[in-house]
Amino acid sequence: MSGIGAVAVVVAVVMTALVAWWLRSRDGAVRVPQGEEVPVDPVFERLGVEPARAELTVVQFSTAFCGPCRATKARLQQLQTTRPGLAVVQVDAESHLDEVRALDVRRTPTLFYLDPEGRLVGRSSGAPRAEELTALVDAHVGVRP
Amino acid sequence: MPQVDVRAPRFAAGVTAVVLTLALLLGSGVLVAAQAAVFAVAAGAGLRRAPYGVLFRVLVAPRLGPAREREPEGPPRFAQVVGLVFTVVGAAGYLLGAPAIGAVATGLALVAALLNAATGFCLGCELYLIARRALPARA
């Protein structure tokens, strides 16, 4: 039995719990960009995003290995069925590395929320919780019953 | 790119966490080196030929039913390289008479394995996008 090893195991378990807790609290939290950020319109334009055509456009960056990305994508598709004003653009991060760098995407899924004027009204990293995503979408988009 | 059952890397992370915990408790550099060898095979030969991947396919998958989701093996395979680096440092630390270095490096590998097994969060996979971002585009 190794004393230092036992300590390392305990530290590792505590660290794992802390990281898991941190990820959980941070995943999907929407940040509203502050004024000084680089203009993002040309980047979204290159991705074929046309925010003027919807009340809210959600741009989702995903990677193929990312399970939470699939869940988020499904959730957005589901929201779209009753919210015609919601547009969703799916972007594969690996094949759009220039845009990934320009927008400083570090994790997937990363979501960008754009209003009809093309302004960035928020961004989030990690899978958003279903009810939070719905609330955010509903703050911008009318629901058709 | 070959596809793998998403449950396989997670199972492998669980086995890895058990092996690394044992290695730390026993202070066994040999066991850390064995785990490093497993990572090396997975990184070099692919996840389907990796020891824990075979174990999953032969023993576990038949009991769980068919795969519901598959993923490309690139990122989890890259994660094996990340694991390999940590366990090589860990094994070297133990075997070359620096058990503190061995324990710290092995402990960090254990954090990544536990996190993946418990929450599905794959640290090495996250680093994959960051590495792809940092490197110039491949032709």
From TrEMBL, chain A:
Classification via Gene3D superfamilies: Glutaredoxin
Molecular function GO terms recorded: isomerase activity
Keyword Transmembrane: yes
InterPro entries recorded: Thioredoxin-like_sf (IPR036249), Thioredoxin_CS (IPR017937), Thioredoxin_domain (IPR013766)
Transmembrane segments: 6-23
Keyword annotations of the record: Isomerase, Membrane, Transmembrane, Transmembrane helix
One of the protein's GO biological processes: cell redox homeostasis
Residue ranges of every copy of the Thioredoxin domain listed in the record: 12-142
Listed name of the protein: Thiol-disulfide isomerase or thioredoxin
Organism: Blastococcus tunisiensis
TrEMBL record, chain B:
Transmembrane segments: 78-96, 108-131
Record keywords: Membrane, Transmembrane, Transmembrane helix
Domain named DUF4395: residues: 4-133
Domain of life, source organism: Bacteria
Pfam family, one: DUF4395
Protein name: DUF4395 domain-containing protein
Organism: Blastococcus tunisiensis
Lineage of the species this protein comes from: Bacteria, Bacillati, Actinomycetota, Actinomycetes, Geodermatophilales
